[in-house]
Amino acid sequence: MHRKSPILILSLFLITALSACNLPSGSTDATSTPDLAQTLTALADQAQPGSGDAPAQQDTATPQFTATPEFTATPSVPEVTVSTNTNCRTGPGVQYDNIGALLIGQVGTLVGKNSQTGYWIINNPGKTGTCWLYPQYATVSGNTANLQEYSIPPTPTPTLTPTFTPTPTLAPPTAVNNPTVAKVCVPLVLPTYNYTGTLNWEDKSDNEDGFNIYLNGGLIGTVGANVVTFPIAPLPLAAGTPLTFGVEAYNSAGKAAIKTVIMVCP
To answer: Which of 43, 80, 84, 89 has the fewest C-beta atoms lying within 10 Å of its C-beta?
Structure first.
């Protein structure tokens, strides 16, 4: 009911205005009548129900969105790098054979672990098979929870290095000792004798190949190792003629000193 009152008042106002428009044209006190159609339209717009209660539309601020942070993808296969060039062995320790290495700048692929020792098992870089990586210098990336748990392999049996027995260097033999002559003086036409008999000596060496026999400095015969006698062939000489017999031990390394004995007939 309250919303119809302004319309009623507006209608009355209109009727009055139209009546004024029909006044005699000769009246000089009348002022110009405004454009009633525009006035009525404006008043009608203002009189629309609720038009005066509507608040001015407020601009709504556009919400600002925080950028979603980018996450580095976790490698699907766990990997390892090292800060120091690190050996890779057949097991966890220096007692195992060294079969590879992971170098600074290389990326190794993890295939297993040993929780007891902390060692990582990786694909042997640049080779076939796997090896055990010393963990001290290792940095691991990726999920290692599902890695296979490796058992510690048996300690390798050390290979015995045969003891080398050097072949002794052969030395020249030791000189004989105490050469003697069992002489036989056979008289011929005096003063000539046949010098004969046996030359004897003591063998003091265990590595001789034989003995050389000398007469007055000239070689007259040779006997084998361990032989200690030499027969003297008959020599017709004047009585009192000295004969010098010598015995010399020898082998491939050299000769011993010549030991001599003098024989005189009669």
So the answer is: 84
